[in-house]
Design a protein that fits this description.
This is Apolipoprotein A-IV a. The protein is mainly alpha-helical. Helices cover 98% and strands 0% of the residues. It has 1 helix and no strands.
Length: 117
């Protein structure tokens, strides 16, 4: 009789251990599933946030680009006459310098020919 009582006690303990194992497994799976759902929700919220901000910023970016184009056109408008004026002032000096260099070169060539003859 003692053998059976001990055996039943062992079975009860084993049954309790198995029950605890399944309870722990159920709790872990529930927690893992909850965590996965929360991660998915956070990812979805982040995606929605990014899309909303992109939608909000597109008109602002477009407006800034338009303003930059306008500013660049105005700067070009103002600088073009200055550049043309500078070119008009510098070009005669460049032409004169080039003429002087040509004269010096021709003189040197003439001297070299005279020495060579």
């Amino acid at each position: 009789m003692k053998f059976r009582i001990g055996s039943r006690a062992a079975q009860a303990t084993e049954l309790e251990n198995i029950s605890q194992f399944f309870e722990n497994l159920k709790n872990k799976l529930t927690q893992d599933l909850t965590d996965a759902i929360q991660v998915q929700e956070v990812a979805s919220q982040a995606q929605t946030f990014v899309e909303n901000k992109r939608t909000e910023l597109e008109p602002v970016v477009s407006q800034i680009q338009d303003q930059l184009r306008t500013a660049a056109a105005k700067v070009e408008e103002q600088l073009k006459p200055l550049a043309e004026n500078m070119q008009a002032q510098v070009q005669p000096m460049v032409d004169d310098f080039q003429k002087q260099m040509e004269d010096i070169l021709n003189k040197l060539i003439g001297q070299a020919r005279a020495i060579g003859n």
